[in-house]
């Protein structure tokens, strides 16, 4: 069973190498842009974010973390992204918007990590590893995968638009497309659980040293 899944995934990647290249390129460009933007902040913006960061550490250190609230927010954010990409995938104009969303996700990560490292140096690296990396080990690949599926489905619609008698095939492909994305969201849920219940534990522990 696992071998069969591996074969399916390998064939999918091989058949969509160019799409994966562009999606990952946009994601990495977003990370680079976010990291650069964190260094381009004005002194006022830096001071505002530093104050916010200090308040965050003091709150984390003194109060119990509301894991359920974090889980709800994480599920909302990631499900919104997945659903928007799914919707854009069934349009013929969704490809650039999907790439933009992927780039924006990269930008947020790059800006956050860049700011932590800029303000806290090596401590910022450690904090990024415990607060951002654990959940994104699952969430980022899933988001990239969903982005590739959305673009692939959109390209399929464009190709079939000039063909006749493809309605039945498109309906089948749509159900397959939707089912796979729904299954990927199960993995995203695991990432959200990590963000809500595991990362906060490390953040609370490490905040005492910040």
Automatic annotation (TrEMBL):
Protein name per the record: Stage II sporulation protein M
Transmembrane parts of this sequence: 20-37, 83-116, 136-158, 174-198
Keywords carried by this UniProt record: Membrane, Transmembrane, Transmembrane helix
